[in-house]
Design brief:
By secondary structure, the chain is α+β, with helices and mostly antiparallel strands. It has 15 helices and ten strands. Helix 9 packs antiparallel against helix 11.
Length: 440
């Protein structure tokens, strides 16, 4: 298809804009990695292009693009098939790790089809114009007094909004975070599993429509929080509202096919199982189960999922979840306060949910441990894993902000000390890890 349509200047210009935007507003990189990148560029580009040669596009040359496209043909393809079903069919062995493999010519049936003038799939086409590429980089004029920290600018029965105008970095970017809080999630282990399933399907549904935004350097993330759905978006503020509205629209019109439901539940089984068989993640789950009142264990969730979920139960859960919420949002960066309020307004208008009868907590209540030595020992669920995990937990109770900061400093200092001990005791292992990172 690409060979028949030929080079497209519009697409080239879109890529040029995206790369230029990223280059001009890039965040600070690691100095070592930056020096390594420049050293590599010195081997490839003239000195005037060392800083920009691998990041910016300067001149549209369709003949070079066409030449590259002509090399992309089935006859030059190298197909690699990885599957456990190939056991017994791989008779060669590579010399480093003894991995078995096999090399075969392409089946004549397929090579003949590829060499002919076969019909193209009519569903394949070049992408439409990317509407998420930012073109307005002006800094907004503040419409309210500047504050050191985010402040509440909107508070209703259905939600509240926190806001902070960027007055430090002064770049045309913004960060938006919304927490859609519901008391429904923690009512049972089944509800927790249904919520995890819902968020995973929601993310799957968004992957294709949000792809253009990802290409245009806009980022989003959906998190299945303990008490609600967390939606995070960030990037150039010019087109960020479009991405946010896309997410809320798909949430309002949430649907799925039985095939997607089956795929996601199978993936979730593997995710839960992998958490249970790893000593470090199992230890964390058990510690939180002891400390936090009302938490459902990973074992509860896994057993519930293995018993089976129905499509109807998920549909009923999602309907109930969206019917009664409290939306708490934060908008920070290059937006005015009046523009920021529109995000909460859009959530409320689009989802049409009722306010909660009683406020829903957003954190578990932590058990106050007695002043005594307490020990919890658990056998690993993976009998083939000889590793052990030891967690020593010290409970400090409620503290001031300064005391919390000092505790964080203590943790960072201890972490640095442990790394120094590792370097002293296992220098070879650390050197191998460094080399793997450098040459990976």
């Amino acid at each position: 298809m690409l060979q028949k349509t030929g080079p497209d200047q519009r697409i080239w210009e879109e890529i040029q804009k995206i790369e230029a935007n990223e280059f001009h507003y890039q965040e600070q990189t690691d100095p070592v990695e930056y020096v390594e990148s420049l050293c590599e560029n010195m081997q490839l580009f003239p000195k005037e292009d060392i800083l920009t040669g691998d990041q910016l596009l300067f001149e549209y040359k369709p003949e070079i693009i066409a030449e590259a496209l002509n090399q992309l043909c089935p006859q030059r393809a190298n197909l690699i098939l990885l599957s456990a079903s190939h056991e017994g069919q791989c008779h060669l062995k590579e010399k480093w790790f003894g991995t078995q493999y096999n090399v075969e010519d392409i089946d004549k049936h397929w090579s003949d089809i590829w060499a002919s003038d076969f019909m193209l799939n009519p569903d394949l086409h070049l992408p439409e114009e990317n509407r998420y590429i930012a073109t307005d980089f002006d800094l907004k004029v503040a419409d309210c007094p500047q504050t050191e920290y985010p402040v509440s600018i909107l508070n209703t029965q259905q939600g509240c909004l926190w806001y902070k105008k960027d007055d430090k970095f002064k770049i045309p970017k913004a960060y938006i975070r919304f927490h859609l809080i519901s008391p429904l999630i923690q009512q049972s282990a089944e509800n927790v599993v249904l919520f995890d399933t819902f968020v995973n399907i929601f993310a799957h549904n968004l992957a294709e429509p949000a792809y253009e935004a990802d290409v245009a350097q806009l980022e989003y993330k959906l998190v299945a929080g303990e008490h609600g759905l967390i939606i995070r978006v960030k990037g150039f503020n010019h087109k960020l509202p479009l991405l946010f509205q896309l997410i809320i629209d798909h949430l309002a019109d949430f649907s799925f096919t039985p095939e997607v439901f089956e795929m996601i539940t199978e993936q979730l089984k593997k995710t839960y199982f992998n958490i249970l068989i790893k000593p470090e993640t199992l230890a964390k789950d058990i510690r939180l189960l002891i400390l936090e009142h009302g938490r459902w264990s990973m074992t509860d969730k896994y057993e519930t999922l293995m018993k089976g979920l129905s499509i109807d139960s998920l549909l009923l859960f999602v309907k109930a979840f969206k019917s009664q919420l409290f939306a708490e949002g934060l908008v920070q960066g290059n937006f005015t306060s009046s523009e920021s309020k529109e995000f909460l307004d859009y959530v409320v208008e689009k989802l049409q949910f009722l306010p909660q009868v009683h406020p829903c907590p957003v954190q578990f209540q932590v058990t106050d441990l007695p002043t005594a030595h307490l020990l919890c020992k658990v056998k690993t669920l993976n009998k083939g894993d000889a590793n052990s995990e030891v967690t020593v937990y010290y409970q400090s109770g409620a503290r001031s902000l300064r005391e919390y900061s000092l505790m964080e400093l203590l943790v960072v200092s201890l972490d640095a000390l442990i790394k120094q001990v590792d370097l002293f005791l296992f220098p070879t292992a650390l050197m191998i890890k460094t080399l793997e990172h450098r040459y990976s």
